[in-house]
Xanthine dehydrogenase YagS FAD-binding subunit (Granulicella pectinivorans), 328 residues
Amino acid sequence: MESFSFTRAATIPQAIASTAGPGSPARFVAGGTNLIDMMKLNVERPATIVDINGLALDKVTPTPEGGLLIGALARNADVANHPAVKAQYAVLSEALLSGASPQLRNMATTAGNLLQRTRCVYFRDTAHACNKREPGTGCSALEGHNRMLAILGTSKDCIATNPSDQNVALTALEATIQIQGTKGVRSIPIHDFYKLPGTTPHIETALEPGDLITGVLLPKPAAGAKSHYLKLRDRAAYEFALSSAAVVLTVASGRITHARVALGGVGTKPWRSLEAEKALTGHTPDTALFRRAAEAALHGAKPQTENGFKVELAKRCLTRALANTVTA
């Protein structure tokens, strides 16, 4: 049994001050659907837990620029079913509804989902070496059970997959993460928010000690844009992606004028494919084009001992997602 202190924050400055001090780590808790699991497994051992559920960060509101601001504490179920999200950002609604279970979606928050930890079995089992959990100990997954793990963005030190559905959709939507911390307020594009593992897989995001995510900003949708999220998994519910694709497309005068593509289940972070976007833009949408874009997206894939099937699976997933988006 690991002892820890527990406090409730009434304001954002109070929350930040509660976690920014020196010494043992502190963690914010909202829905607790990931942190509590990690504590039970002895993977997370915070000295201080700060409950932030009392903060006024649970709203979904339109912005003057025509976008949408999703509060950090907005529950996944509420975001997925929000009329503006369903109408203007369908890919996000579909991604959220494909994740976890209704009970978990009722508890899980937007910011908590952004910070969801990997499901790699070696990260979650303290009896095995894991550079993400304990830097410098090695990566047991390289020669172990790696069927579910990444084929894009990997390194010799880590091949763990980012498990989120929400974050793949947010990447395709070019969301911006809003943060408040000891250094003030700042915004980080989601593409820069997540870090590749490299030699420091324990550094997963751009967050610094004391930082609190306050919201996620979605830009105004491109005129005429359609979007879609497709998730392939071992079973139809309550399962993580083997491969997924989030697509945002605009077709005008018979050609694709705007394309955003992100992949899930195959990357060490939500994987935006600039290569696929380039292959799509300016061309007439058809199956052959979609397949070429998928080939471009997976060109740099590095499969491991058990997950080579993911290369073709991801190609087919993206090809189908693109076709579904155009015909929607």
